[in-house]
Design brief:
Structural class of chain A: mainly alpha
Structural class of chain B: mainly alpha
Largest sheet of chain B: none
Shape of chain A: globular
Largest sheet of chain A: none
Radius of gyration of chain A: 18 Å
Oligomer: heterodimer
Strand content of chain A: under 5%
Number of helices of chain A: 7
Number of helices of chain B: 4
Helix content of chain A: 55-70%
Number of strands of chain B: 0
Shape of chain B: elongated
């Protein structure tokens, strides 16, 4: 219960930050990506500000033995740069540039119930399911990339 | 009240009076109603973009938040490479859709 409340609070804080910073406005995001036009640098400042807060929070997190509502921190351990990372990032970027939405802001904007946002989130869910299915089919090593890693963003033990 | 004003005035700042891409159907989140009319063309673009974002984030193990924020925040080489890749292809996509085809509004 406490864990779910903490997740709810973090989600709300995240959503408020995304809205205030303009990340939920696709035109603003595309303005940031429009280096050849009139480049809108403000989202780079959002990123820099978020990194400062994150770095401080992560530093503090390293000093505590375990999270308050979980047995341990879930920190990605992979180090190698491989083809799926680069190809996946490239595909993601094309979609991001087309719509001006990435997953977090898209989910946040779902509250607006704008038809194109609903369509975007629906097709994003489809893309996620197809991606997971094809990764599982290609890999065949479920023990190497266990699904709980993704499903457990709030850190269930 | 202050929140409403802040959201309302942001799009009118210099440089924000213009859509960089002619995706009229893609919404601008605005509590006072969408300023861009949704069209079937915009919905189609949203659908294609959604699939790409969903699939790409799975294949690449992360998105703007996961790689761009948390990953770079801990100086992960994978995340730095991924972020540079998706900012590059995102910028290329905006360049193609707004400067080569479409030509603004």
């Amino acid at each position: 219960m406490k864990r779910n409340l903490a997740a709810l609070g973090c989600g709300m804080l995240f959503a408020i930050g995304l809205c205030l910073s303009g990340m939920t406005q696709p035109s603003k995001v595309m303005g940031f990506l429009d280096f050849a036009g009139r480049w809108d640098a403000s989202l780079a400042c959002v990123m820099a500000g978020a990194l400062l807060v994150y770095a401080a929070a992560a530093r503090w997190a390293r000093s505590v033995p375990r999270p308050r509502f979980s047995a341990s921190f879930h920190i990605p351990t992979r180090k190698e740069v491989d083809a799926p990372l680069v190809v996946g990032g490239a595909i993601f970027g094309v979609g991001w540039g087309l719509a001006g939405y990435c997953p977090g802001p898209a989910l946040t904007s779902l509250a607006s119930l704008a038809p194109s946002t609903v369509i975007f989130v629906g097709s994003m869910a489809t893309g996620i399911l197809v991606g997971r299915a094809s990764l599982a089919a290609v890999d065949g090593e479920p023990d190497k990339q266990p699904p709980p890693k993704h499903a457990d963003a709030i850190g269930r033990p | 009240m202050r929140f409403t004003r802040m959201v309302e005035t942001r799009p009118r700042r210099p440089g924000q009076d213009r859509m960089p891409v002619s995706l009229r159907g893609v919404p601008v989140v605005n509590p006072h109603g969408p300023s861009i009319q949704p069209t079937p063309r915009g919905w189609l673009i949203s659908a294609v973009a959604g699939v790409l974002v969903g699939f790409g984030s799975q294949l690449g193990n992360g998105c703007t938040s996961g790689h761009g924020m948390c990953g770079i925040g801990k100086l992960s080489k994978r995340s730095i490479v991924s972020t540079m890749t998706f900012v590059a292809t995102g910028a290329l996509t905006v360049f193609v859709t707004s400067h080569l085809f479409g030509g603004g509004r």
